[in-house]
Automatic annotation (TrEMBL):
Keyword annotations: 2Fe-2S, Flavoprotein, FMN, Iron, Iron-sulfur, Metal-binding, Oxidoreductase
Name of the molecule in the record: PDR/VanB family oxidoreductase
FAD-binding FR-type domain: residues covered: 1-101
PROSITE patterns, per the entry: 2FE2S_FER_1 (PS00197), 2FE2S_FER_2 (PS51085), FAD_FR (PS51384)
2Fe-2S ferredoxin-type domain sequence ranges: 236-321
InterPro entries the UniProt entry points to: 2Fe-2S_ferredoxin-like_sf, 2Fe-2S_ferredoxin-type, 2Fe2S_fd_BS, Beta-grasp_dom_sf, DmmA-like_N, FAD-bd_FR_type, FNR_nucleotide-bd, MRET
Natural source organism: Streptomyces milbemycinicus
Cofactors demanded by this protein: FAD; FMN
Signal sequence bounds: none
A Pfam family hit: Fer2
SUPFAM superfamilies: 2Fe-2S ferredoxin-like, Ferredoxin reductase-like, C-terminal NADP-linked domain, Riboflavin synthase domain-like
Length: 321
């Protein structure tokens, strides 16, 4: 984690604020692949992941877009209400959980709402590479579509297909047509609300194998329990390979309980995204609620993201790495 200074802010829409960040110590920022995100700790100490949405080759500054979430625990609200030029924030190094497939010969980017952010970075990169791509952008209206003006004036404006103001059914129809008959080596990338990404995955899967369909893991929702597998939030026991046993009650995570008991455990996002807190499972059945382990890793059942995932069995035996 390091400190950055906000050099510019502007409102992209009524609810989306763009921040430009530079390192406070004047050092260069690390380059990042399109689709990467950073963890941002705001003025209230809450850390949230935000996709980097500037041109990836611009390492003079990082750009993020923050949607004000009315039901959030204050992370996005503080970035809207308490951050202005010269405010300092703490951020982590860029991480890539969502990125362009190097082997793809055609890329179809499909965004809804604030989901445009990582796909905008991808569009910049694909244009720079002279790659074949389309960017489909779904929004309730142009006024609610962040970066609509930028896209219209961009050098790749002819690659952008806008689906603004269309109803749900009309959008489904348009995307069905857009994702039909793609070449066998095409890849599809979706970012937006989980229901939207699920719809895109279903449409794309009619012609492409699962491994060629990608979606942004943290757009599915960022709170514990909003992952792929939401079982009942019961308590359970966690046993360390050193023999100590702790009870994890409803409403607390394994990471919370270990920390309360002085057991060292490294965490970062605490939202099941980054993978920092993953532990090895020796016994018991995890109830995976994270977005960092792959479907294969979840099925294997020998790892668990301690910040969000729970247990289906009464006890989990875990090993601290
Ligand atoms: S701390 Fe990031 S996945 Fe748990």
């Amino acid at each position: 984690m390091f400190t950055v200074t906000v050099t510019e802010t502007h409102a992209e829409t009524d609810t989306i604020k763009v921040l430009r960040l530079v390192r406070s110590d004047g050092a260069a920022l690390a380059p990042y692949p399109a689709g990467a995100h950073i963890d941002v700790t705001g003025p209230t100490g809450i850390t949230r992941p935000y996709s980097l949405c500037g041109p990836p080759e611009d390492t003079g500054a990082y750009t993020i877009a923050v949607k004000r979430e009315e039901n959030s625990r204050g992370g996005s609200q503080a970035l809207h209400d308490k951050v202005e030029p010269s405010t300092e924030l703490t951020i982590g190094a860029p991480r890539r959980l969502f990125g362009l497939a190097p082997q793809a010969r055609e890329h179809h980017l499909v965004a809804a709402g604030i989901g445009i952010t990582p796909l905008l970075a991808m569009a910049y990169e694909l244009h720079a590479r002279k790659a074949e791509f389309r960017l489909h952008y779904v929004a309730r209206s142009r006024a609610e579509a962040a970066f609509a003006g930028l896209l219209e004036k961009s050098a790749f404006a002819d690659r952008v297909v806008r689906h603004f103001g269309a109803g749900r059914q009309a959008v489904a129809h348009e995307l069905t047509g857009a994702l039909a008959g793609l070449p066998a080596d095409a890849h599809v990338y979706a970012c937006g609300p989980e229901s939207f990404m699920a719809q895109v995955r279903v449409l794309a899967a009619r012609g492409l194998p699962e491994e060629q369909i990608h979606s942004e893991p943290f757009r599915a929702g960022t709170s514990a329990g909003d992952g792929a597998d939401n079982g009942a939030d019961d308590g359970f026991e966690v046993e360390l390979d050193t023999g100590e046993v702790y009870t994890v009650p409803p409403g607390k995570s394994i990471a919370d309980v270990l920390e309360e008991n002085g057991v060292p455990l490294e965490t970062s996002c605490r939202e099941g995204i980054c993978g920092t807190c993953v532990l090895r499972v020796v016994e018991g059945e995890p109830d995976h609620r994270d977005h960092c382990l792959s479907a294969k890793e979840k099925a294997a059942g020998d790892q668990i993201a301690a910040c969000v995932s729970r247990a289906r069995s009464p006890r989990l035996v875990v090993e601290l790495w």
